[in-house]
Write a structure and sequence with these properties.
235 residues, Thrombin, subunit H, six-stranded antiparallel β-barrel, 3 helices
Length: 235
């Protein structure tokens, strides 16, 4: 019986509150809550501003550019891995951002692990050596530079010599005349370097004098300066 009385009392109070609210007597009580709830809904449902949309669009474009760059890098790495370099070799991918006579400027440097005398390659072809390093850039001396030279050999043989830059091209020099050099033979870095087997070029013309101690040969490169864009520094 007591519970029934409480129920009717609650109903009576609710009806009374509804009637007072209907006549506007409770507006002083409702307005603060309505104002608070209205502001909350406005902030929650407010559409993004033009500046916010522009910032989101710029972030999207930046992410897309990074994805494209990573995809290009992965593709170049896959191409390089196809040449089966030693497992302990590590690579830093760089873009050519400038060229001088017989030299390249790359957009990678000490921050990417590049150091002096590191070889720079295109696939498994040697391009040159790093001769100057800064935090974000590196200067590479191409093999065709007049001061360049490196120990080399005929691929899959014991014939050794020295490759030198000469007049924008290369020569395979200091090769004993007892060995036979022939057009089309591939020249690679020798075991006297820390990275043997990198392709340097192919013999184009042999210069041999039987009375001399040494012979030489001009080499044909597998790449052109103006085609160099993305390269790798071996770390």
């Amino acid at each position: 019986m007591l519970k029934l009385k409480k129920f009717f009392l609650i109903i009576l109070v609710l009806v009374l509150v509804w009637g007072l609210d209907k006549k506007g007597y409770l507006n002083w009580f409702r307005r603060p809550f309505e104002s608070f709830l209205g502001q909350t809904r406005k902030e929650f449902y407010q559409p993004a501003s033009t500046d916010q949309l522009g910032q989101l669009e710029r972030q999207k474009l930046s992410l897309e550019e990074k994805i494209d760059k990573l995809e290009q890098e992965n593709q170049r790495l896959r191409e390089l891995m196809g040449s089966n370099p030693p497992l302990d070799w590590d690579f830093a991918l760089g873009n050519v951002v400038g060229q001088q006579t017989g030299e390249l400027i790359l957009n990678i440097g000490s921050n990417q692990g590049v150091k002096l005398n590191h070889p720079v390659v295109l696939d498994n072809h040697l391009l040159g050596l790093v001769v100057e390093v800064k935090t974000q850039t590196a200067r590479v001396r191409l093999m065709t530079h007049p001061s360049f030279q490196i120990p080399a050999m005929i691929k899959a043989s014991i014939v050794e010599g020295v490759v030198k830059g000469r007049g924008g091209g290369l020569i395979f020099d200091q090769v004993l005349t007892e060995y036979n050099l022939a057009e089309g033979q591939t020249i690679v870095t020798s075991g006297q370097t820390s990275w043997p087997g990198l392709i340097i070029g192919r013999i184009d013309q042999v210069n041999k004098d039987e009375s001399a101690v040494y012979q030489s040969a001009s080499l044909k490169l597998f790449w052109q300066n103006d085609s160099l864009d993305t390269v790798f520094a071996i770390k």
